[in-house]
Structure to design on (224 residues):
């Protein structure tokens, strides 16, 4: 089945700096790549997603890039703020059963 | 509109007991997925139901089972509980067969 690797597992940045989280996936037929943010005591919430026919997508301070050839995708957060502190998960959806497989998560800490 | 609702939010059981968790999806959503979240293993997929049929199943033992009712509400059951079953169990719904998952806040199970 699909395998998703996510790095780093923890990331600490200063407020205003950029943060980058990277994921690789194993199934070349995967077609949908969402990113979720999980705050303490809450369920994960979608922050941005990208489909396999697109290379990059932006939404204000957040962007996602996809390299289908290398089978990796990345989350970029610019001008980080303390409220960006959370656990971020990448995921990959397979083309057959549309099952979402999640990466191991990245704990992002933004220091004021 | 109301989000995904999970009950109970917290529960404590002892080894050997069984537990049933409930999930009410967002109105109009026909797909319900269940995930187990633990600090060491991240988000592990349990199963997905779509229109009362199990569509996908993760690599969990037969002690973990689920079902979906005609109103799309879902339940999952864990029998013969083990200490390692202590986790946050997350339910997520989506309208159709793919795309964004909307998560509930989870049911935190502690097995003593």
């Amino acid at each position: 089945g699909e395998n998703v690797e996510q790095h780093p597992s923890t990331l600490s940045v200063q407020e205003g700096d950029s943060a980058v989280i990277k994921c690789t996936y194993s199934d070349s037929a995967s077609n949908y790549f969402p990113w979720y943010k999980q705050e303490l005591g809450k369920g994960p919430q979608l922050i941005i997603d990208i489909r396999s026919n697109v290379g990059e997508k932006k939404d204000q301070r957040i962007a996602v890039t996809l390299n289908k050839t290398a089978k990796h995708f990345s989350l970029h957060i610019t001008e980080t703020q303390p409220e960006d502190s959370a656990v971020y998960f990448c995921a990959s959806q397979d083309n057959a059963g549309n099952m979402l497989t999640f990466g191991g998560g990245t704990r992002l800490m933004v220091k004021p | 509109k109301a989000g995904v609702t999970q009950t109970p939010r917290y529960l404590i059981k002892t080894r050997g007991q069984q537990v049933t968790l409930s999930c009410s999806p967002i109105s109009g959503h026909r797909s319900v997925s269940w995930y187990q979240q633990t600090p060491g293993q991240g988000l592990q997929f349990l199963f997905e139901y779509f229109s009362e049929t199990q569509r996908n199943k993760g690599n969990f033992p037969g002690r973990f089972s689920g079902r979906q009712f005609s109103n799309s509400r879902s339940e999952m059951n864990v029998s013969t509980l083990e200490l390692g079953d202590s986790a946050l169990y997350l339910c997520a719904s989506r309208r159709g067969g793919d795309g964004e998952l909307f998560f509930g806040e989870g049911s935190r199970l502690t097995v003593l």
Chain B has a mean pLDDT of 94.
